[in-house]
Amino acid sequence: MYPIATTTVGSGGASSITFSSIPQNFTHLQLRFFARSTGNGAGGNMSVNYNGDGGNNYTWHNVGGDGGSAFSASIGASNTSANFGWNAGNNQTSGVFGVGIVDILDYTNTNKYKVSRSLNGIDNNGSGLTGIWSGLWLSTAAITSIYVNVNGFAQYSTVQLYGITTA
């Protein structure tokens, strides 16, 4: 695993985070995030777009729980982004952040659609959410840039990009 880039949000917050000019010499990519939304409510889903594609070319599924009940969701192939995790927002305790790891598989393979999987959670002093997510970008293009959004990133949010090689 090799670090490619890290973005830590400063005092003014950030509307989004973009990783561009992603090297094409790895087998997979991994995003790691520690994030809080500036949006109202419970935050929002972390979402991603690849190569500037904001069209209806994404689908995602999740299974999760909140300690009291389990739930699932799926979005058909007409979404404008792939979601891969929950984040704390303004109605949660100050200093609470969502965390997650996202694997983006075979990102340079031009013979198949791009698949992601993630594990994510939030602990809000005894209440929270945890979940497993899968995403699909309906494109065979190699991924060269990743746009990450969560309804605005709060200060201290961090997103890291790693490259993974296989033997």
Summarize the structure in short:
Helices cover 0% and strands 53% of the residues.
Task: Tell me about this structure.
The chain has strands at 2-8, 17-19, 28-35, 45-50, 58-65, 70-79, 82-86, 98-105, 114-124, 127-137, 146-149, 158-164. The mean pLDDT is 91. The chain is built from no helices and 12 strands. It has one domain (2-164). The protein is mostly beta strands and 167 residues long. It is 0% helix and 53% strand. The protein has an 8-stranded antiparallel beta sheet with strand order 1-12-3-8-9-10-5-6, with no helix packed on it.
Low-pLDDT segments, ≥5 res: none
**Shape descriptor:** globular
**Helix and strand string, N-terminal first?**
EEEEEEEEEEEE
* Helix percentage range: under 10%
Instruction: Determine Rg (CA atoms, Å).
Output: 15 Å
Residue-averaged pLDDT, rounded? 91
Beta-strand level of the residues, as a percent range? over 45%
How many β strands by DSSP? 12
Distance between the termini: 12 Å
- Count of distinct structural domains: 1
What composes the largest sheet?
Answer: 8 strands, antiparallel
Total helical elements: 0
Q: Give the neighbour order of strands across the main sheet.
A: 1-12-3-8-9-10-5-6
Task: Give the class from helix and strand content and strand pairing.
Answer: mainly beta
